[in-house]
Design a protein that fits this description.
InterPro entries: Cyclase_SnoaL-like (IPR009959), NTF2-like_dom_sf (IPR032710). The chain is an alpha+beta fold. It is built from nine helices and six strands, in the order ααααααββαββββαα. The longest helix has about 70 residues.
């Protein structure tokens, strides 16, 4: 029996298959047209390759009813919305970080510009004060007169222990310097230090040591033709690049005693406390000076 089955050829098996199919074509069982269509579909299925089954997914121009479009379109829309939201958040966060960085950069640049401007302002005003003090040492009143219009504001005011009401105008200030240098023709600034008050450059100070030999009367004291040294400090307020106010601080009582020879001269006496010349608002006033010189 086994040998008989093994001896059966493929053609004999196909004939058996055809006889079976013919039996389905008997009247009353299956419609012949429908059977032919089914057989044709079966042939296509049996002869189909793997690529035929993947063709709908490989075609970029697949029809809407293709399985590639079988997923819920709402899912893709919602996913796109989520992705866009994440991108938008990242973009906003990046923009905020960039804005913060830009503000920090602008602040640093502004600070550098302010510092550079303050440095330039201080340098210009330092040069003005340095020029005035050096004029004492190089040429006397002539050099002071030469630079007066360039360094003093037209409404400049000078306040000192010997001028409590203040001197107003360039001419009055220069008259004061002339009187001083007439009494001390060899007067010089032996030492001086220029500093900025408060870091803004709006107010500057100069600490100095003035020395000279008195040959003419001054402050009601007759000359003794002796050299004296006076320590003092000057406070300068500016209007633009010109001096608007000068306040001189020095020990008036001690200076008179030195001129009269009553008190031995010391080249570097201690200065009175400068805060005595400031009112509560930090402004130098003649009234404060009046109280300070009664020593």
């Amino acid at each position: 029996m086994v040998d008989e089955l093994l001896r059966r050829s493929a053609s004999s098996e196909w004939r058996d298959w055809e006889e079976t199919l013919d039996s389905f074509g008997a009247p009353g069982l299956v419609d012949a047209t429908g059977l032919e269509m089914d057989l044709h579909s079966l042939d296509q299925f049996l002869l189909a390759t793997a690529d035929d089954f993947l063709e709908p997914f490989a075609d970029a121009n697949s029809a809407p009813e293709s399985p590639i479009f079988a997923a819920d379109s709402g899912y893709f829309y919602e996913q796109d919305q989520v992705d866009n939201l994440h991108l938008e958040k990242k973009l906003k966060r990046s923009q905020r970080q960039q804005t913060i960085q830009n503000k920090e950069i602008v602040a640093m640049q502004s600070e550098r510009e302010i510092n550079a401007q303050a440095e330039k302002l201080f340098r210009r005003r330092y040069d003005i004060l340095h020029g005035i003090l050096e004029a004492w040492n190089t040429g006397g009143i002539e050099d002071l007169e030469e630079i007066a219009d360039n360094v003093y504001d037209d409404d400049v005011t000078l306040i000192g222990p010997d001028y409590m009401e203040g001197l107003h105008g360039v001419e009055a200030v220069m008259s004061h310097w002339t009187t001083l240098l007439d009494a001390f023709p060899d007067g010089i600034m032996e030492e001086y230090t220029i500093q900025c008050e408060g870091g803004s450059g709006e107010k500057m100070t100069a600490s100095w040591v003035f020395s000279g030999t008195q040959i003419y009367p001054i402050h009601g004291v007759q000359p003794r033709h002796k050299k004296v040294c006076i320590n003092g400090k000057s406070f300068f307020s500016f209007k633009g690049d010109k001096i608007q106010q000068v306040v001189l601080s020095w020990n008036y009582h001690e200076t008179l005693l030195k001129l009269m020879g009553v008190q031995p001269d010391k080249a570097h006496d201690v200065m009175p406390h400068t805060s005595a010349f400031l009112n509560p608002a930090g402004v130098l006033t003649p009234a404060a000076l009046a109280g300070a010189v009664q020593l």
